[in-house]
Design a protein that fits this description.
By secondary structure, this protein is of the alpha+beta class. The chain is built from eight helices and 14 strands. It has two domains: 139 residues, Fructose-1,6-Bisphosphatase, subunit A, domain 1 (Fructose-1,6-Bisphosphatase, Chain A, domain 1); 107 residues, D-Maltodextrin-Binding Protein, domain 2 (3-Layer(aba) Sandwich). The chain is 36% helix and 26% strand. The strands form three sheets. It has a seven-stranded mixed sheet with strand order 3-4-5-6-7-8-9, with helices on both faces. It has a five-stranded mixed sheet with strand order 11-10-12-14-13, with helices on both faces. The protein has a two-stranded antiparallel sheet with strand order 1-2. Helix 1 runs antiparallel to helix 2 and helix 6 runs parallel beside helix 7. It is globular and about 50 Å long. It binds adenosine-2'-monophosphate and calcium ion. Adenosine-2'-monophosphate binds next to strand 4. The site of adenosine-2'-monophosphate has 13 residues, from strand 4.
């Protein structure tokens, strides 16, 4: 069997136990060595790096596919099958609040996510989606999200940076069911997929933040675009607007197309 012919079911069966091992690495008590990256709130620890090393070694040995990882693994090209990994999404939470952080792993085929897994580490929840086959949480199918509700009838997830940068977003939040923020983009997207929030708005996400979770959202019936409504390309950094279909369209109209 060639590595290109490994089915997504076979890959899931291999990858999920590895992600459980990675989860145990994250949960093992240890003094953290914390370093800053682009700014004082952009953190990395030795555990982020260890998880990435562990998964990169195991996954490339088993499959031969190259990996893009936040903590150092780079790609020459997105052609064919590649892994996209965030070893800890929400490192500030890992360090400071000790909950709401995730391991995010996607298999991307010619730039399109085909398999996405987001692990909520402290809750032990494995969110898994294969393209065209629905989304699951610990093997239980995630219901399709509501499709008729407008943004005024939903809880919305965004960050203070977006609220400061987009004045119309501030008023939309006031008009909504309320504003939430958890600090892990992957888990925030999963909140939308699971019907607990109607939309997620972010100005600047990287491929490893969203490659897995956008597939989970799409498979649960959400609409996934950039903040201006254009198509998402998980290979490129940029903005994101993910929502239940009518929350997405009504919020997009309010923010971009129909300013008051
Ligand atoms: P990370 O923990 O993997 O860096 C928190 O604001 C969310 O935004 C997390 O998903 C975090 O991912 C992501 N993020 C991306 N760039 C960031 C940055 N420069 N500083 C803090 N968080 C960042
Ligand atoms: Ca990270």
């Amino acid at each position: 069997m060639t590595t290109e012919s490994i089915s997504l079911d076979e890959l899931s069966a291999v990858v999920i136990p590895l992600l459980e091992q990675a989860r145990q690495i994250a949960l093992a008590p240890e003094e953290l060595e914390i370093q800053t990256k682009s700014d004082r709130n952009d953190l990395v620890t030795q555990v982020d790096k260890r998880i990435e090393q562990f998964l990169a070694k195991e996954l490339t040995e088993i499959t031969g596919y190259p990996m893009l990882g936040e903590e150092g693994h780079t790609l020459d090209s997105f052609a064919g099958r590649v892994w996209v990994l965030d070893p800890i999404d929400g490192t500030m939470n890992y360090v400071a609040t000790h909950r709401d952080y995730a391991i995010s792993l996607a298999l991307v085929e010619d730039g399109i996510p085909a398999l996405g897994i987001v692990v909520d580490v402290t809750k032990g929840l494995f969110y898994v989606a294969q393209k065209g086959k629905g989304a699951y949480c610990n093997n239980k199918k995630i219901d399709v999200v509501p499709d008729k509700l407008p943004y005024q009838d939903a809880v919305l997830i965004t960050d203070i940076k977006e609220i400061c940068a987009i004045p119309r977003l501030k008023q939309a939040l006031v008009d909504s069911r309320g504003h939430r923020r958890y600090g892990s983009a992957a888990l925030e997207l999963v909140e939308v997929a699971c019907g607990r929030a109607g939309a997620f708005v972010h100005l600047w996400v990287s491929p490893w933040d969203i490659a897995a979770a956008t597939l989970i959202c799409e498979e649960a019936g959400c609409t996934v675009t950039r903040l201006d409504g254009t198509n998402m390309d998980v290979r490129q950094k940029g903005s994101i607007l993910v929502g239940w279909p009518n929350v997405h369209s009504s919020l997009l109209k309010r923010l971009v197309q129909d300013p008051r």
